[in-house]
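Exercise 7.
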Amino acid sequence: MKNNVLIAALLCLISAISWGAMFPVANHAFHYIDPFYFTIFRYVSVTVILIVWLLWKEGRQAFRMEGKGMMLWFFGTMAFAVYNLLIFWGQDLLGNPGTMVASINESLMPMISIVIVWMLVRQRPPAFTLFCVFIAFVGALLVITKGNLGAFMSATNDIIPSLLIFIAVVGWVVYTMGGSQFSKEGWSALRYSTLSCLLGTATATIVVLVVTMTGYVQVPTLETIVITSPHIAFMFIFPGVIALVGWNYGVSIIKPLNGLLFLNFVPVTTLVIQIFQGAEVTVYDYIGTLFIVVSLISNNIFTRMQQRQTTSKTQFSGKLQGTAS
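Solution. The predicted structure, written as tokens, is:
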């Protein structure tokens, strides 16, 4: 059991670092290829690998939808069409600053999930959690606006790409929530990842074909594919297959509460890589990243304390009832 926990924690760490590294890698690739075909080439490869893996691991019966085809298509579309297409499109439109903006939005996922659950369940989170959500939002705002909110609001060229990135991140949060539903019904992380990836990538491929027919993007040349092949290889191996399946497996072992802590490595990894690449990193990038990391850790500690108090009260109540009987 201890070895399983260590492996799960290592997979979560690799996933978070991979997600943090994928934005600088993508930014470099966008000098040669558009984000639409970059995404398709990446996830068609991921889909093929996952299909072969699932067939070997669980057999043909694992490909049965069991009446959940529409749900799988919806959640898959949220992740592999909405998230993957929009986050890289928004990043590319923003240029070099988009690398850090995309990474920061990625690290906001736990806070966004808190707000979504609040809206769906109509149960208000604790005041301290809401405070952490606010601090994380301020941190993201600092990175996105570079400390100049007025200039950002007047620059529509920055607002729209930033909105695309935010919508993309919400899409991944919805996908993650869907994964927890399928996990409760006995579906493995590999099965959910494979079938949702298959349906979502099919949707994304149709979108890219439509965008190509409009003339917004063009089919990459063979030379472009060769130049960007190292980028695509990294993207489908680490942020693709390993991060997708590894994260879902890791979180199922160490629990989501522990897994969320690893998301701190996403913006930190991006920041470190950008520094080594010689990219312009402002003081607002440092402060904003610090705000988000502190808010995530603080809320995680607070949630743990609440769980322990609840467990202690339940145990104490049980002892009282046992004494009374």
